[in-house]
Amino acid sequence: MSQYPRIKRKKTREIWLGPVGIGGANPIRVQSMTNTDTRDVKSTLNQIERLRSAGCEIVRVAVPDERAVSALKDIVRESPLPIVADLHFDTSLGVKAVEAGVSGIRINPGTFKNKKRLDELVMVCKERQVCIRIGINAGSLESEILKRYKTPTPKAMVESALKWINYIVEKFDYYNLKVSLKSSNWWHTVKAYEEFSRISDFPLHIGVTEAGGLITGTVKNTMAVSYLLLKGIGDTVRISLTADPVEEVYVAYEILKNLGLRSLYPDIIACPTCGRCEIDLMGLYKKVEEWARGIRANLKLAVMGCVVNGPGEAREADLGIAGGKGVGLIFKEGKIVKKVREEELLSAFFEEVERFLKEHPERMNQ
Ligand code: SF4
């Protein structure tokens, strides 16, 4: 039996966000958003670099005012990732963001009062082939639709998204568009995406909005994103968390990896520890995890608390460590290959992993 569920991805229209292909046969893209002050170019670029090295492929930055939009030019020029400008209410900032060279903009057209200005914005996007995300959010659904539905139901959100997609397609013959339909309620979120996906083939950016901190937000996002991905829905993913945005990228890859959709860094199996553990396993685990995130390989590593059960329980791992009293074992494919002192355990383990990867170059990702 395959270790992953069989997923048939819905074939969506292929679009481009700068050099990054989205939808069609492209892999599911991982994106995040900076939480630095966009006007502070240096801090924003530092965060973008941290996101890139974690595997992020698209980054969104907030553009709240004129100073932020003037900083964008420098950010776009230096950024290793394509930039999406996040805009609310003010279309003139959008035009300036496009002129600053962003690859995408995220708008919720229903919140724009002046439709003429919206047209101007779409036109400059079309001229420069800038991708537009129609970002429908349950919390800021346009008033006309909200009046009819009373509450921001999934159907109301879909109606709003379809209205703006059709408007841009029909009036401007422009198709470099994607859609998000986010709610802080994960079930409403999936229902909205399911409904939209049934009707339209525009690519979908999925995730739950205002999901919460590292634990609560990860749980809500994992429920919604996994549910949708299992149904083949979703072309880009953002796990929004009230946390360091780099964590969003790690969580997104963990979900994609566990669904067998995308693997970037090694999978780590670790035991929860019990009374048999005589080593600082949590400390070891943290160090292995940190190190493994710097490796782009399809690999299973194990961090186990005792030599009695560890190697057996983690038989499916390519390589692992098991702790003893002052010593540790390194095992490869279930067999013990080395016994080392506790203080040398990590460096010896990392050496073994590197040797294994030299012998198995096919395991390297990218
Ligand atoms: S591997 Fe050992 S320490 Fe870890 S849970 Fe199993 S028995 Fe306990």
**CATH superfamily grouping of the largest domain:** Dihydropteroate synthase-like
Task: Examine the coordinates and then state which fold CATH places here, giving the name of the CATH topology of the largest domain.
Answer: TIM Barrel
Q: Main sheet?
A: 8 strands, parallel
How many domain regions? 2
Mean pLDDT: 94
How much of the sequence is in beta strands?
Answer: 15-25%
First CA to last CA: what distance?
A: 27 Å
| CATH top-level class of the largest domain | Alpha Beta
Brief sketch in words of this structure:
By secondary structure, the protein is an alpha/beta fold.
Please describe the topology of this protein:
Blueprint: E1 15-17, E2 20-22, E3 29-33, H1 41-54, E4 58-62, H2 66-78, E5 83-86, H3 91-99, E6 104-107, H4 115-128, E7 131-137, H5 143-149, H6 154-172, E8 177-182, H7 186-199, E9 205-206, H8 214-230, E10 236-237, H9 245-258, E11 267-270, H10 281-292, E12 300-304, H11 310-313, E13 319-323, E14 327-332, E15 335-341, H12 345-359
Parallel strand pairs: 3-4, 3-10, 4-5, 5-6, 6-7, 7-8, 9-10, 11-12, 12-13
Antiparallel strand pairs: 1-2, 13-14, 14-15
The structure holds iron/sulfur cluster.
